[in-house]
Design brief:
Blueprint lengths: L9 H6 L2 E7 L6 H11 L8 H8 L9 H11 L6 H17 L2 E8 L1 H5 L6 H19 L2 E9 L4 H13 L5 E7 L11 H10 L2 E6 L5 H9 L5 E4 L7 H9 L3 E4 L1 H6 L11 H6 L3 E4 L4 H4 L3 H11 L4 H13 L5 H21 L4
Parallel strand pairs: 1-2, 2-3, 3-4, 4-5, 5-6, 6-7, 7-8
Helix pairs in contact: 5-7, 8-9, 16-17
C-alpha cells in the first residue's frame, strides 16, 4: 500500500462512514499511552526507548509474518493492565480513535482473562470496568458501541465458562456477543460447544475465530458445532467448496481483516488475499482491523487496501459496510435504523464527492 503523500485517496477513505465488527481492545492500545504506563509503573519493558518498545508490541517490517510472532505481542501487552484506571483509559482511547476514523458503529471485543492476570483482578471487575468506560466514551465521542467478550481455546473451559456467565449477567449493559479465539490450529472448539450454546439460548450472539490459522474444517466446526453467526477472519473457507456452501446456506458473515491476515502468515502476500474472491463467491464479507495498534493501521487503511490493492470497487466496499451493519449484534429495529442512516450518509457522501 502507498504511504504518506503518495496516497491521494486517503482523504476519500477517511471520509467514508464505517462499521467495525472485529476489533480487539487488547490490540488497540496507543503506543504513547503504553510508554506513559510503563514509565509510571516501572514495567519490565524499554519504555525510555520507543524504538525498542515498538517491536515488542507492534508488528514490524522484517519480522517473521507468522501467527506465533503475531500472538507474541499479546504476551507483552498483558503487562500494561495495571489498574482499573488504566484499563478504562485504554477502553476510552479505543473509542476516541474509532470516532476520529469516522466509525459510526463498533463492536469492541475484549478478553477478560487477558486484562486480569498480571494484577489478579477478578474477571467480573475487569468486565465491569470496560463496560463502564465504553458506555461513557460512546456517549462522549458519538460512536455507537457494543461489547463482545472473548475466551481462548488454548485456555481452560472453566475460564471460558466464567466469561460466558458474566456476559449473560451483563446483557443489559451492552454485552451483545461472545467470541472464541486463541490458538485455533492447535486446539479444538468442540469442548466449548455447550458454553456457546448456553450463551445463545440466553440471547447472546456468537462469533468464532476460525479459518485463519486453521483450515476450512474449523469454519465448518464453528458453524455446525459452536453455532457461529459470524466468523472471525474465515479466509481459508475458500479452500473447500463445501465449507463455502455451508457458510452461504447458514447466512454466516465473515469478519475479514486483510492486514492482520498478512502479518500473521495466513496469506503469503497481500495480493494473495482472498477478500475479492470471497465476495465473488457470494459470501457475506465485512472489512475490519482486528488489532489496529499491533498492525499500525486504522479502518481507513483497510478500506484503502481493499480497493487499491485487492481491487474491490467502491460499490463493493460500500456493500461490505452495509453487510456489516446488517450483521450487527443489535435488535432488529436498531439494526434497521443503523442501515438506514448509513445508506442516507452514503447517498450524501456520493453527492458531495461527485459520485466518485
Amino acid at each position: 500500500m502507498a504511504t504518506g503523500s503518495a496516497r491521494p485517496h486517503r482523504v476519500f477513505y477517511k471520509s467514508i462512514p464505517k462499521v467495525e465488527l472485529h476489533r480487539h481492545l487488547e490490540g488497540s492500545l496507543r503506543l504513547s499511552t503504553m510508554i506513559e504506563v510503563a514509565r509510571q509503573h516501572k514495567l519490565d519493558v524499554p519504555y525510555e526507548n520507543t524504538g525498542m518498545l515498538r517491536p515488542m508490541v507492534q508488528v514490524q517490517n522484517g519480522e517473521p509474518f507468522t501467527h506465533q510472532n503475531f500472538l507474541s505481542k499479546f504476551a507483552k501487552l498483558r503487562l500494561f493492565y495495571q489498574s482499573k484506571e488504566i484499563i478504562q483509559r485504554f477502553t476510552r482511547e479505543v473509542i476516541a480513535d474509532a470516532a476520529a476514523d469516522n466509525i459510526r458503529y463498533m463492536e469492541l471485543r475484549f478478553t477478560p482473562v487477558a486484562l486480569t492476570r498480571i494484577k489478579e483482578f477478578s474477571l467480573a471487575e475487569a468486565t465491569d470496568w470496560v463496560i463502564e468506560s465504553a458506555q461513557a466514551a460512546a456517549a462522549e465521542y458519538g460512536v455507537e458501541t457494543r461489547l463482545i467478550t472473548s475466551a481462548n481455546k488454548h485456555e481452560s473451559v472453566e475460564l471460558a465458562e466464567e466469561v460466558i456467565d458474566l456476559s449473560i449477567e451483563r446483557m443489559d449493559k451492552g454485552i451483545v456477543g461472545v467470541d472464541l479465539a486463541g490458538a485455533e490450529a492447535e486446539f479444538p472448539g468442540e469442548p466449548f460447544a455447550p458454553l456457546y450454546q448456553k450463551a445463545k439460548e440466553a440471547g447472546l450472539h456468537v462469533t468464532i475465530h476460525a479459518g485463519e490459522w486453521g483450515g476450512p474444517e474449523n469454519v465448518v466446526e464453528a458453524i455446525k458445532v459452536l453455532g457461529a453467526e459470524r466468523i472471525g477472519h474465515g479466509v481459508r473457507v475458500m479452500e473447500d467448496a463445501e465449507a463455502v456452501a455451508l457458510a452461504k446456506e447458514h447466512n454466516v458473515v465473515f469478519e475479514v481483516c486483510p492486514t492482520s491476515n498478512y502479518q500473521s502468515g495466513v496469506v503469503p502476500t497481500l495480493k494473495d488475499h482472498p477478500l475479492k474472491h470471497m465476495l465473488d463467491a457470494g459470501l457475506q464479507v465485512t472489512v475490519n482491523t482486528d488489532d489496529p495498534a499491533i498492525s499500525q493501521i486504522d479502518l481507513s487503511d483497510e478500506y484503502e487496501l481493499a480497493c487499491e490493492d485487492l481491487h474491490l470497487s467502491p460499490q463493493q466496499l460500500r456493500q461490505t459496510i452495509i453487510t456489516a451493519a446488517k450483521a450487527a449484534f443489535l435488535p432488529e429495529e436498531e439494526r434497521s435504523t443503523l442501515v438506514s442512516s448509513l445508506e442516507k450518509e452514503f447517498a450524501a457522501h456520493e453527492v458531495a464527492n461527485g459520485n466518485s
